[in-house]
């Protein structure tokens, strides 16, 4: 049997999955890590905790499968993107907590850029001006953390996204990243697929602290046991590969801590005029890079965690389905979880969360249903923008990620969008995509088309909602979104 390992390092947890050549799950082990919130708008992770959990989940999955690490033909790594960590090569220790993609501490700096510099960033990178991306996080670490500044001066600093941190630790010192992660930093030129000197100068970041940029599917290094580390890929691009979205026009939406919709645009770099991002979708070896349009929603699954942890109206996230299903509708309640601003297609860091439409009749169940509807409405916002940019009307959408196990949410999504929602058998397609990319790099599969036959449908949902009702409810949603704006001066 052929076994491939996939390390899936996400925003809230780290998981190691083992697949066979038919894309069947052999074993999986997962651990959550702490969300460190020093002050409003700041979100951090402990890089040492993430690395410790990585070792534990690899050992746990191998133990469950009765395999040794040398039984794996390759390992692929997929990761939360934009989250940025600095460490010292002499000690091997982080120099500061990682700044998570949700962190907004650099919003003021990004907003202070001149119009010409904002245009430069957008034109070269395909990204919008937002604290979301890694460049301003790297700048903050260098400017604000003396230990980082000293290591940069001494030449011992390494700063990168989480894929680079994991590769460095797993391989014993290899330092690299892939085109998908690099395309999320606001430092890589979309056309040259290399760090752009003008952007490095703009953010005052020395080139020697950054990793070399490689293809997604590529043998980067080996573990001490000799297992090839054969793929690095940002989590959302990993899900595109896992969903076998290899044709121009293929799209998927991943439901996780946030929601992320991508549309394959092939070798063409399409510049969005509707608030979306242009990003690298993947690059297999020496083949040309494939690009995508992307819409990112900051808070979807994490809104359910908020109901669980802060409001404590549920004790486990899975309880949300039954609670929300205990009422027929939202009772007029709309919840916009703009906890750290709004991402696509609005890109408003001044927004903050609101709950509107409350009455004496409102209950926990109505709020729970409004939270699920918020996931669906934010996803519609993004997909409508995607259709406008691509001039393609979506008739169906492939979905994946943990929240898609919620059947009520999937029905709400079909009702909100008026299209078919299709869930595959394996909903953790992010990890599967990393396994596919690694397997292609070491010859388990010869090409992306070889893995397409592994995609298997689990269930699909069609809309049951009257189109007039759908339009009316969506207008109410947009009114609620408008209430979130201009909250932060």
Automatic annotation (TrEMBL):
According to its UniProt entry, one GO biological process term is: glycerol-3-phosphate metabolic process
GO MF annotations in UniProt: ATP binding; glycerol kinase activity
Recorded catalytic reaction(s): these are: glycerol + ATP = sn-glycerol 3-phosphate + ADP + H(+)
Q: Which UniProt key words apply to this protein?
A: ATP-binding, Glycerol metabolism, Kinase, Nucleotide-binding, Transferase
Known Gene3D superfamilies for this protein?
3.30.420.40
**Database matches in Pfam families:** FGGY_C, FGGY_N
Residues passing through the membrane, by range = none
Q: What is its EC number?
A: 2.7.1.30
Its UniProt pathway annotation is:
Polyol metabolism; glycerol degradation via glycerol kinase pathway; sn-glycerol 3-phosphate from glycerol: step 1/1
Carbohydrate kinase FGGY N-terminal domain location: 3-242
Q: Does the keyword Iron-sulfur apply?
A: no
Query: Which GO CC terms are listed, alphabetically?
Result: cytosol
Q: Where is the Carbohydrate kinase FGGY C-terminal domain?
A: 253-441
Q: Which family does it belong to?
A: Belongs to the FGGY kinase family.
Recorded protein name is glycerol kinase
């Amino acid at each position: 049997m052929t076994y491939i390992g996939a390390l899936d390092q996400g925003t809230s947890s780290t998981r190691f999955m083992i697949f066979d050549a038919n894309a069947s799950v052999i074993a999986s082990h997962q651990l959550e890590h702490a969300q460190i919130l020093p002050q409003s708008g700041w979100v951090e992770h402990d890089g040492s905790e993430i690395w410790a959990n990585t070792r534990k989940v690899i050992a746990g999955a191998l133990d469950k499968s009765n395999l040794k690490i040398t039984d794996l033909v390759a390992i692929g790594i997929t990761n939360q993107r934009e989250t940025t960590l600095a460490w010292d090569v002499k000690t091997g220790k982080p120099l500061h907590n990682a700044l998570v993609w949700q962190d907004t501490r650099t919003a003021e700096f990004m907003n202070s850029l001149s119009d010409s510099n904002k245009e430069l960033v957008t034109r070269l990178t395909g990204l919008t001006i937002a604290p979301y991306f890694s460049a301003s996080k790297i700048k903050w670490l260098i400017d604000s953390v003396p230990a980082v500044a000293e290591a940069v001066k001494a030449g011992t600093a390494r700063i990168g996204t989480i894929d680079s941190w994991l590769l460095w630790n797993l391989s014993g010192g290899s330092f690299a990243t892939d085109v998908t992660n690099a395309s999320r930093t606001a430092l890589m030129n979309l056309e040259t697929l290399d760090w752009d000197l003008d952007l490095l100068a703009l953010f005052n970041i020395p080139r020697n602290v950054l990793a070399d940029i490689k293809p997604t599917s590529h043998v980067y290094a080996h573990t001490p046991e000799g297992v090839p580390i054969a793929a690095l890929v940002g989590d959302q691009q990993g899900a595109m590969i896992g969903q076998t979205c290899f044709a121009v026009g293929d799209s998927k939406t991943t439901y996780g801590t946030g929601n992320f919709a991508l549309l394959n645009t092939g070798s063409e770099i399409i510049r969005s005029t509707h608030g979306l991002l242009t990003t690298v979708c993947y690059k297999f070896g020496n083949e040309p890079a494939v690009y995508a349009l992307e819409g990112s929603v900051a808070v979807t699954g994490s809104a359910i965690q908020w109901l669980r942890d802060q409001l404590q109206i549920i004790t486990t996230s899975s309880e949300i389905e039954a609670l929300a299903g205990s009422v027929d509708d939202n009772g007029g309640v709309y919840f916009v979880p703009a906890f750290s601003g709004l991402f696509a297609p609005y890109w408003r860091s001044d927004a903050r969360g609101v709950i509107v439409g409350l009455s004496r009749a409102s209950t926990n169940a109505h709020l729970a249903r409004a939270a699920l509807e918020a996931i669906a409405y934010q996803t519609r916002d993004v997909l409508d923008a995607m259709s406008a940019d691509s001039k393609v009307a979506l008739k169906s959408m492939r979905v994946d990620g943990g929240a898609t196990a919620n059947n009520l949410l999937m029905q709400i999504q079909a009702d909100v969008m008026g299209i078919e929602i299709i869930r595959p058998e394996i909903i953790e397609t992010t990890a599967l995509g990393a396994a596919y990319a690694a397997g292609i790099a070491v010859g388990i599969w010869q090409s992306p088309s070889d893995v397409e036959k592994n995609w298997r449908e689990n269930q699909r949902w069609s809309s049951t909602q009257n189109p007039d009702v759908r339009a009316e409810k969506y207008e109410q949603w947009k009114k609620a979104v408008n209430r979130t704006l201009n909250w932060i001066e």
